[in-house]
Specification:
The protein is of the alpha+beta class. It folds into two domains: 76 residues, no CATH class; 109 residues, PAS domain (Beta-Lactamase, 2-Layer Sandwich), CATH 3.30.450.20. Helices cover 37% and strands 18% of the residues. Strands 2-1-5-4-3 form a five-stranded antiparallel β-sheet, covered by helices on one side. A hairpin with a 4-residue loop joins strand 1 and strand 2. Helix 2 runs antiparallel to helix 3.
Length: 220
C-alpha cells in the first residue's frame, strides 16, 4: 500500500490526481444537481428528459424557454445552434443593474412612460411629461390622459392584449416641433402582454437628414 501511495509524494502528480478526482466527483454530481434544478424551476418531466439528454454546457438551455430565461450562460457556453437574439429579433447580450437602466433611460433622446398589464402607470421620464404630477404613478393611465385620448388608448390596449398588434405610431406638431409618439406592446418571453410602453421623440431636426453623416465634427 505504501509503495502505491509513494507516487503521491511527487508534487505535480499529486496536484493532477487531486484535480482529476475533484473533476470526476463534479461530473458525478452534475446529473443530480441538474435534476433538482430542472424540477425546481419547471416541475416538468419533459424538461428534465431534455436536459439530461444534452451535454452539461447546454443542457439547461435546451430544456425550455422558461428554463433558459432563468439560467444565464457565459459566452463560451452558448451552443452554436443558439442565436443571441431577443424576442424582437434584436441582438442582445449582458445585463443592466437598476442604476444602469435608470441612467440609460435618462440619456435616451426620448420621453418614456410605462404602464403595466393592468394599465397602472409605473414610470415616466422626460420633458413632455413635466406637467404630470408624480402622484399619477400607481394610478390608471386614463387618469393622466385627456378624455379625447382615452378611447384610442383603450382600443390600442385591447389590440395589444389580443396580440392583433404590437405597435402604433402617431405624429403631431406642438410648439412648432414635430413629435413622433410610439406605443409598443411589452411582452415577456412567453408572449404574455406585460404592459404599454410609450415613447415620444422630437424629430424636428431629423426630418431633413439625407445621405450620410458619419464624420465626427468636434466643432458642434
Amino acid at each position: 500500500m505504501r509503495s502505491r501511495l509513494a507516487v503521491l509524494r511527487e508534487r505535480n502528480f499529486r496536484q493532477l490526481y487531486i484535480g482529476q478526482s475533484v473533476s470526476v466527483l463534479g461530473d458525478g454530481l452534475t446529473p443530480i444537481a441538474l435534476t433538482f434544478a430542472v424540477l425546481g424551476l419547471t416541475g416538468s418531466a419533459t424538461d428534465l428528459g431534455r436536459a439530461l439528454a444534452r451535454p452539461p454546457a447546454s443542457a439547461l438551455h435546451s430544456a425550455s424557454p422558461r428554463l433558459r430565461r432563468r439560467v444565464p450562460m457565459t459566452p463560451n457556453e452558448v451552443p452554436a445552434s443558439l442565436s443571441p437574439l431577443d424576442d424582437a429579433g434584436m441582438a442582445e447580450a449582458g445585463s443592466l443593474s437598476p442604476e444602469q437602466a435608470q441612467l440609460a433611460i435618462r440619456h435616451l433622446p426620448l420621453n418614456v412612460s410605462l404602464a403595466d398589464e393592468h394599465g397602472t402607470l409605473v414610470f415616466w421620464h422626460g420633458q413632455i411629461f413635466a406637467d404630470c404630477a408624480a402622484a399619477f404613478i400607481g394610478r390608471h393611465v386614463d387618469d393622466c390622459h385627456a378624455p379625447q385620448s382615452r378611447a384610442a388608448i383603450d382600443r390600442m390596449t385591447v389590440a395589444f392584449r389580443a396580440g392583433a398588434k404590437d405597435e402604433e405610431l402617431f405624429w403631431y406638431v406642438e410648439d412648432g416641433r414635430q413629435l413622433l409618439a410610439r406605443y409598443t406592446a411589452v411582452r415577456d418571453r412567453d408572449g404574455t402582454y406585460r404592459g404599454l410602453l410609450e415613447t415620444v421623440q422630437d424629430i424636428t431636426d431629423l426630418r431633413g437628414l439625407e445621405g450620410k453623416g458619419n464624420t465626427l465634427d468636434m466643432a458642434k
